[in-house]
Amino acid sequence: MAHYLSIRDLDWPLTVTALAISGIGVVQIYSAAHGTIWEDAWWKQIVFIILGLVMMWVVAAIDYHSLLGQVFPMYGASVVTLAVVLVAGTRVFGGRRWIPLPGGFRFQVSEFVKLVIILLVARFLTDLRSDRVEARDLLKLGGLVGLPMLLVMKQPDLGTALTYLPILGVGVFLAGLRWKYLIAIGLVLVVLLPVGWHLLKDYQKARLVSFLDPDRDPRGSGYQMIQSKIAVGAGGIWGKGVTRGSQTQLRFLPVPHTDFIFSAFAEEHGFVGVVVALSLYFILLMQIIQNAQTAPDRAGMYICMGICALLLFHLLVNVGMVVGRMPVTGIPLPLMSSGGSSILATYMMLGLVNNVRLRRFVN
Amino acid sequence: MSLIPVEPDLERQQIPSKPVLRDDPKFASGKIAFIQYLTVGVFVFLIAGFWELQIQNPEFYNERAERNRIKALPIPAPRGKILDRDGRVIVDNHSSYSLILSRENLKMEHLKDIAAGLNLDYGELVAHIERYKSRPRYEPIIIKEELTPAEVAFVEAHRDPEFFPEMELIHAQRRLYPQNGFAAHLIGYTGEVSEEELDSPEFARYNPGDIVGKFGIERQYNDILMGVDGQRQVVVDNRGRERDVLGIKEAIPGRNLQLTIDLDLQAVAELAMEGRKGAVVALDPRNGEVLAMVSRPTFDPNKFAVRIRPADWKDIASDPDKPLFNRAIQAQFAPGSTFKPLVALAGLESGAIDDQFTVHCSGGASFYGRYFKCWQKHGHGTVSLHKGIVQSCDVYFYNVGNRTGIDKLAFYAEMAGMGSRTGIDLPHEASGTVPSTRWAARTYRRKWYAGETISVSIGQGALTVTPLQLAAAEAGVAMGGVWYKPHLVKGAKIPAPRTWALSPDNVQKVVDGMYGVVNEGGTGVRARLPGIEVCGKTGTAQLASNEFLKGKTAEHLKDNAWFVGFAPRQAPEIAVVALFENGEHGQLAAPIVRDVLKAYFDKKARLIAAAQPKPPVLAPVPTRPGENISGAPPTSAQ
Question: How far is B32 from chain A (nearest CA, A)?
């Protein structure tokens, strides 16, 4: 039975909320970056948002079951691309994360790999056809997610690599994880923690240490966190106004238009602005969960919940970092932070959510 | 409205279905609900973070944001210039850059590189910063002044956040002292106030890092010379670049100070003392203004301008000649024969002798069972008052002193200002010693030995004076008993002089004797100036007894040479004292005084000659000390 998709059937509350958040983001990018070399970031962001909307529609249009059918080739292509980035990518801020594209744009592969991981987890767990995840399956799926994670970590981009984990975690949790496995995983993590600490780069260790005690090295790795807390606190209830935040404008706040955009926002818009913005994110997440609940099948549910988990993780780590409740990791705030790859990937995820929603009555 | 055809769902049909499994998400609704609660929890956690920062502690963070943003940079106030009596600049300021460290940004591990870049000693730098521990953190520390262009370039290149953001350059006015230690003891020097000084009441009101006068005029008149530092409140960005100025409190510059010193005379005196040890003081008997003051050896106050390098300090402090010692006011030596005019005056005034008193000198005389030699071992024959002074006959003055008695001698010496500080406006002045029976009893709890009086009569024994005291004493005698307090700052209110009603006749006799010393073939012919009635007296003061000196020729045990002189004979305008340490004979100090007197009168003549007063030029290079002025007859006798 062939039928047609209508734009009218999109999840409009979801889309409008996402656009509202993006709009706040554009204003904040303008405010934080005017007068700097990133002065044109705000209109580039608008271009990417429009491009993101188009991609959202494209992703929504192709039935997610077709996408799930192609997930293994996509996965293979992702791993190969990540390996290529590692060897030949553009070095920025000491990491290889980007593939240069003609026209001066750079393509951050690890952002788009998130989409593939979401589909991969959904496909894998659906294919189990069971209400229980066995140890063998867990190891297999862990390995599949672990390989791109390792490649991204090598870039090195620990933050982005970690964002793949909640997709896996929530998927496995929903698919039915036995308590004994949960305990086993916990034990393995405890054992691996010292090993992992050993594998961390010096700056990563310093970030973790200064998260626990930021005043220990106020000029070094603790600096960003201290300055962010100062910016947020100085915002007070009502904020200092657009382009009026001294921490943001005088650049005491590091990268106030990308990773620390929410800190700049909190300084200039205060607690009231923060509550409004976080409420929008909350509506967005609840809308995604609602789509998961009304998904036509398990695969759709896994996709929506994977996206929810990923966005929630981003929010927790990024905004938590801004208020000093999470260590400094360079991951962007979805929909707000300046950055084409992040914006496109996020809108494509919302496209997947719409994809599932559009097919909820097809059964 | 765009419509896109949906492809048939082939994929799903290919998956073989297990009948037991429901393929809808209802099976996980409980877990999804759990994740919903988890999401709510995350949001509460985040909102709580903002609540804590923005609602509970906004003032705390606002203050820290302000402190990030606003920096208070000091504007150092330039010190006042020091000028000579004609308004010529002796001490000036010059522009320089200083480096300050802001301790809010300070990272101790940067210090090593900063020290290397600025040619500082690492250990000293750390110690210097430690000293500021007790001060508020926003107070910056000055770690180096007088940066060279290369050092300024180093700072400019490395003050980014990636390197050493704690470095800040400030523009400052620095002290510029004359070269070669010219008038160094008189002017003194400035330096950073030390910890010990901060504990003393004199310096208690200063802050660490303040540059204050430490010696000489710089110290004595620090309050006038030192200005009040200003402050600039500026908005800076994270790189320390100024974005905006919030307010400026301008520095109040220190006031200029005009001295009584005449640069022309000072230059002549400096040159005359070049390579020698000793002091020269020239003053105006009519008001106590000090016209020149030299002490040798000297030091370079520029080395002290901020913080003396330890190596330089060691050099200066360990020099056996004590270059920091201001001999003009601190050296206490026996005046030797220069004391004789006062002895003569004391004898006449006290009535112990009259102007007809004569003595036969056979090269020595016995008093109280001891033989006292005259410097002229063949004797002077019959010696009158006038001849006694002119020939400086020791035997004559042994008798005068013996008749006058020690307490009368002490009375007139003290009246002339000996034995106590003159009160000149310089720190660390010494008082000298005037021995007397009371002095012996008070200081040594012993009785006075009559033989001591004989030694004191020729300016030896326990009697010591400073060059300044001698100059002031002589000036007062030349004025007929009017002693003005010596002072160095022009325009200050001159306190009423000490006066004593000396008999003009007696004064005239003594002054005539001193005229004879210079002009009648006496011991001071080398101080003769054609056309000027110069009066004077030589002095050759022993540093140790003849017995002790037997067979010893050490340089530092050689006799000190003194010369006191004034001119003109009537209505004196200038009095000069020269001390030439280890100069062996007072004759050798006479040309120094002559040079200064000549400079004074040459200048006076030039000023009168000039139809319109022009700015005075430096006096011509004086004749070498020891040389005769053309026309003066060569001397062979004392």
Answer: 7
